[in-house]
Design a protein that fits this description.
single chain; two-stranded parallel sheet
Amino acid sequence: MKRRTFLLSGAALTSALAAWQYFGANVVDVIQMMVRKRLDYLTLDPEGLEIFARDMAALHVNSKGRLQTLALIGPAYVRFPLSSGHNRFAYLLRHGEDRIVSTYLISSDFFVNGMNESRVVRYLGLPDPLRACGNPFARPPT
């Protein structure tokens, strides 16, 4: 009887910790973790990255459930290449990563500075589609 009680209490504690981690996840921290992992070869401005993560979280572009799941498996996400497989989980993870990372790069001065990997990448602001020349790849007419 004591062993069963021990196992049930351990399972309940593990479930409670997982639920606390899932529902108490900070989406801003998950977005920062995702950008840092994918752009580990660049030097990122930490303050700008935090502002970007807050801006992206405020837009509600990504599913909060997916980001909370990513927070739940955060240590494994950082250490292992989870998005390299050919299954549904890897596809969904890659899709969310690509959306966030590409938005960060377009919102930063990375392309404005000629994709120089030795410079610190600074966040400028989310791209505005109504602003003229908001495209970093646009060339002035000659």
